[in-house]
Amino acid sequence: ARAVHRxxxxxxxxxxxxxxxxxxxxxxxxxxxxxxxxxxTFSAKPDPTPNPLQPWVSLKKDGTPQTIKPEIKKxxxxxxxxxxxTYFKTATMHTFSYEELKAVNMDPDDVHEEExxxxxxxxxxSLNPIIRCTPDRYFSKGPAKDIPSEPxxxxxxxxxxxxxxxxxxxxxxxxxxxxxxxxxxxKVRVHLSYVKEKSVEMGNHKR
Amino acid sequence: xxxxxxxxxEWIDNVDGLLPIEIKEDWLQNTYERRIIxxxxxxxIPDEDFDPRLNGVLLYIRMGSKVYKPxxxxxxxxxxGISDDKWYYIALSIPTVVVIxxxxxxxxxxxxxxxRDFTDVTRKALNKKRRxxxxxxxxxxxxxxxxxxxxxxPSYKKTGKQN
Lengths: 207, 163
Fold this sequence. Notes:
The complex is a heterodimer. By secondary structure, chain A is mainly β. Chain A has one helix at 98-101, and strands at 20-24, 28-32, 35-37, 40-42, 56-59, 65-68, 71-73, 76-78, 90-97, 111-118, 140-141, 147-148, 152-154, 160-162, 166-171, 187-194. Chain B has a two-stranded antiparallel sheet with strand order 4-5.
């Protein structure tokens, strides 16, 4: 006797992702339409009760999505959503005068400069469940593996992309920062181009 | 246009830093695999100054293998009671028809056993086996052959000692 394996019930139309309304920048109402790409739901409505163990989506080396479920082991949460440190924060120098601080070890004529990091506007970033690309996730490429893959995190060099599948290309958005104006390029586009191969390099892949 | 480029996305917001790409079979141009380079062009760099090789990533697009096992869609159809079982019916019907034919044949032969007469057929076959060759002199092949008539072998008078 073998236990009958019954597949899980499929989503019905009532459970399908539906547009939802949110308030941004204090007073603006916005209708958000969730989209599902390669099994990943973007712009999904957040749970009314925030779940600290909310699954998030990582990416494999070739750019295919992989859902990660955080878990608590020995009182510590493992596989948590990554912390982006200060990669997406803007550094500003704040100057404090003596009148502002009134520090005991400060001369009245001195000024104190302190670097402050201002968080980015996460109005739209928060709708993305996929891990973002940061410089610490760069890989090494080239024959000697000595070239950083900037601005890309995925796909890795020499990955295989197969016909019919969807892959995510991810890059560090702040890589395209204009040095003169300190502004990040607001629009980008992705190109896929053919590369000529030598005859000895062609067809070496084991099918 | 950047030479060798076969796919260019629309200008997208550089907010999340990601773009999903579905691989199309046309991109392979009737080959099994192609080596490609993926590059990102910011808005502030014009096409003339943009070089995809500068920060691009090299990778392969491949045809991939076809796995003949039920897909999620097929399983969902089966779960809903919709299945394409034509081959199953064909595979079952052929041996069934053969078995029915032999059963009918058996009853037909059993019913007509007494009325069956194959003697003319069998006699002819048996007569072929019992064919009489006939006289050697009448055989077509040997008619022209000059054959000596049988004569008695020479006999010798027996001597007295032999008696």
